[in-house]
């Protein structure tokens, strides 16, 4: 969930946006002429894959400057310095700064200066405006830096789940996990070998279990990401004296989920910290198979911002309801009656757990319409709608609801009629709903949290 810094420079040209769904910027190509910056082109990385964005501006006769290459994941783009001509409304020059080096000034360091930078964050995307003549403006998306030096609370030990066979092993607590090697046997997971981050070094926890001819499959964690949950399945297999681990699946803070390593069968259990946390180490039991798996977690000691409750809009008819605040919204369900919204229901996320809220209102034969989000990369920023006093109703009811995310806008649920309203807080995402309801929805409000990642 990136922070968008508005474009600096002139107001001319056509708007363009590379988006914010990247892990980092990896290469920058810029060309300048006597009239300023002719074009910019950025390359990004997402889940290990390189993405080259379109060229923004025009390819003229000018020779482009040497590419500014950023060696992800050890290096990241910190800021951009620029200069623009307030009369010509074009960008005259640019300079790029990473945590390890600084580019030369490309173009001219003349005119009105500007800087794109957010403290303790890195640039993961760009937007701006350009035409067939030059680049007019440039803005950026920023994401938090997640490092091994982030203050953590003392680690808590999640007890190992699975069988009681084999010998106890314990890798202890580290700064984080960089790589997990999972070895498979005929009927389950035979072996695990974890590579940890310890200070500036990588250390192996050692092989626990017995490697087979099937070898290892590897799950790598990006340098600016960390594991938040591990799903384990375990079962009693013929010939084994106790249950063994049959599959392991990893989920990270940034929403990356591994395939299941092994065959999902038997009992399912999830290792995670209830309020969200970073996995710092593994322990368990093993002999020729992996019998049990546990983990150490710690949460960041930085206090979370409390959710803010925005007042509900509509009439005071009906009974008050409040779902409270969560980490985010995964799905919206809206039911309609003949003359307005009759019922709403929301599905939330809380610490990687799915929480389905109650139905508020009375469902009709028209049933529910749904708006599902691509959580966690997508989140609701705005709810708008209308309310009106309808025939045979003593108070106004919500007649239409519409949901806007950082990526798109839903279709309107209901009929747009009456007084319009908007529920939003700049720089915040919607993480919960409240309101008043009878057989119809009379009032709706939201809980919001700052957009921080």
From TrEMBL:
Gene3D superfamilies for the chain: Jacalin-like lectin domain
Residue ranges annotated for the Jacalin-type lectin domain, each copy included: 2-144, 155-299, 307-450
Positions of region (Disordered): 1-21
Keyword DNA repair: no
GO molecular function: carbohydrate binding
Keyword DNA damage part of the UniProt annotation: no
Matching SUPFAM superfamilies: Mannose-binding lectins
Superkingdom of origin organism: Eukaryota
InterPro entries listed in its UniProt record: Jacalin-like_lectin_dom, Jacalin-like_lectin_dom_plant, Jacalin-like_lectin_dom_sf
Keyword vocabulary terms for this entry: Lectin
Record family assignment: Belongs to the jacalin lectin family.
Official protein name in the record: Myrosinase-binding protein 1
């Amino acid at each position: 969930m990136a922070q968008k810094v508005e474009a600096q420079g002139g107001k001319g040209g056509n708007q363009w946006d590379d988006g914010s769904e990247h892990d980092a910027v990896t290469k920058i190509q810029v060309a300048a002429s006597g009239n300023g910056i002719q074009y910019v082109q950025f390359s990004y990385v997402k889940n290990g894959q390189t993405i080259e964005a379109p060229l923004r501006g025009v390819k003229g006769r000018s020779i482009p400057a040497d590419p500014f290459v950023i060696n992800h994941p050890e290096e990241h783009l910190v800021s951009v310095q620029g200069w623009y001509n307030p009369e010509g409304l074009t960008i005259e020059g640019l300079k790029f700064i990473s945590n390890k080096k600084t580019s030369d000034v490309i173009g001219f360091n003349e005119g009105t200066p500007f800087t794109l930078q957010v403290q303790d964050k890195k640039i993961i995307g760009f937007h701006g405006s350009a035409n067939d003549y030059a680049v007019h403006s440039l803005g950026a998306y920023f994401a938090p830096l997640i490092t091994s030096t982030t203050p953590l609370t003392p680690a808590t030990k999640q007890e190992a789940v699975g069988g009681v066979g084999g010998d106890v092993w314990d890798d202890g607590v580290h700064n984080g996990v960089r790589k997990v090697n999972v070895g498979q046997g005929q009927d389950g997971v035979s072996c695990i070998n974890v590579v940890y981050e310890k200070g500036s070094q990588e250390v192996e926890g050692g092989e626990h279990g017995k490697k087979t001819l099937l070898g290892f499959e590897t799950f790598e964690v990006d340098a600016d990401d960390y594991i938040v949950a591990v799903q384990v399945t375990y079962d009693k297999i013929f010939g084994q004296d106790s249950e063994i681990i049959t599959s392991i699946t990893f989920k990270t803070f940034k929403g990356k989920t591994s395939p299941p390593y092994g065959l999902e069968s038997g009992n399912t259990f999830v290792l995670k910290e209830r309020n969200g946390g970073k996995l710092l180490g593994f322990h368990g039991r093993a002999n020729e198979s992996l019998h049990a798996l546990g983990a150490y977690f710690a949460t960041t000691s930085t206090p979370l911002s409390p959710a803010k409750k925005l007042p509900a809009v509509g009439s005071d008819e009906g009974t008050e309801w409040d779902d409270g605040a969560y980490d985010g919204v995964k799905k919206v369900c809206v039911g309609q009656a003949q003359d307005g919204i009759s019922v709403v229901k929301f599905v939330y996320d809380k610490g990687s757990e799915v929480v389905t809220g109650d139905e508020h209102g009375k469902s009709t034969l028209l049933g529910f319409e749904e708006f599902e989000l691509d959580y966690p990369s997508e989140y609701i920023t705005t709810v708008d709608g209308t309310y009106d006093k309808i025939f045979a109703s003593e108070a106004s009811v919500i007649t239409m609801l519409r949901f806007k995310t950082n990526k798109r806008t839903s279709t309107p649920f209901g009929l747009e009629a009456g007084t319009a309203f908007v529920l939003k807080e700049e720089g915040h995402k919607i993480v919960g709903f409240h309101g008043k309801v009878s057989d119809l929805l009379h009032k709706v409000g939201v809980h919001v949290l700052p957009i921080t990642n």
